[in-house]
Amino acid sequence: MKVFILTSSYSGTAAHHLPYLLNADDFEVVMVIVSKGIIKDKKRFYIKKLKKTFKIGLLGAINGIRMRKWFNQGVDEYIKIGDIRDICKEYDIPVAEVPVINCEQTVAYIKESGADLGISLGNGYIGSKVFSSAPRGMINIHHEILPSYQNAQSIIWQIYNKSSVTGYTIHKIDKHIDTGDILYQKEVPIQFKPKLSETIARTSAALLKASADGLVYTLSHFDVLFANAKPQGKGTSYTTPSIWQFIRILNNFSKLKHK
């Protein structure tokens, strides 16, 4: 089976997972498509951001920005992720750049690749024209358990709900975010450390490694898993926590880390 990767980052989940895929024998990565994330409609973009800020509050928005580094730079302390362009150059895999995910160029590159299946790693919303361009559609890795944690950032909402486990879900992509049929899913223990930031960084690194193995397994057993994919049913969707929700996360974290 031939697959392509669609990502919105040169150094992120896709760059981490690609070497795992290249070491497998049951499928072939034929192209990597990178979205530059150019904002075409800036007015619409900022209105959307403003609405979210009103929903979670200014302090919640500021805190959300502060937390980003826990999931990015913090993870770099535990695993080193290279540039996906360097990996592709080494293995002679074509890299195509597109201005945004949902555009005709993306569709054209998918068809040009000749891939049977697409893999989304580190993207936002993907429209039907894109995810239906390959014969077998596209799958996505969501680093949380579905359907309980749709659109949720990893780990923090589990702690909010007094849970000591997180996980990842590999699912079909459909017209909504994180709602497609589930192919494979696995829980991963939260690795509690003295600080919440360190807990998130270390657990995020463990999640990346686990989901890379899970992706290889899914692709190696794709026909069976695809045929038996499980509809999600009703789920719960999350966004960035408000400051009051974050205070609850901190309180629960203090209790859970001493268990």
Describe the structure.
It is a single chain. The chain is α/β, with parallel strands linked by helices and 259 residues long. The chain has a single domain (2-256), classed as 3-Layer(aba) Sandwich (Rossmann fold). Helix content is 44%, strand content 17%. It contains eleven helices and seven strands. The protein has helices spanning 13-22, 42-56, 58-71, 73-76, 84-91, 104-113, 128-131, 156-160, 196-220, 222-227, 243-256, and strands at 2-7, 28-35, 95-98, 117-121, 138-142, 165-172, 182-189. It has a seven-stranded mixed sheet, with helices on both faces. β4, α7 (128-131) and β5 form a beta-alpha-beta unit. α1 (13-22) packs parallel to α9 (196-220) and α2 packs across α3 (58-71). The longest helix is centred in the last third of the chain and has 25 residues, at 196-220. The termini are far apart. The mean pLDDT is 95.
Percentage of β-strand residues: 15-25%
Q: What is CATH's topology name?
A: Rossmann fold
What is the succession of H and E elements? EHEHHHHEHEHEHEEHHH
Number of helices: 11
Task: Classify the secondary structure makeup into a structural class.
Answer: alpha/beta
Spatial order of the strands forming the largest sheet: 3-2-1-4-5-6-7
Name the shape in a single word. Answer: globular
Q: Return the average pLDDT rounded to an integer.
A: 95
Q: Specify Rg, calculated over alpha carbons.
A: 18 Å
The fourth-level CATH homologous superfamily is Formyl transferase, N-terminal domain
Low-confidence stretches: none
Tell me the total number of β-strands: 7
Could you describe the largest sheet, including whether it forms a barrel? 7 strands, mixed
**Which architecture does the CATH hierarchy give at level 2?**
3-Layer(aba) Sandwich
The CATH first-level class comes to Alpha Beta
Termini distance? 45 Å
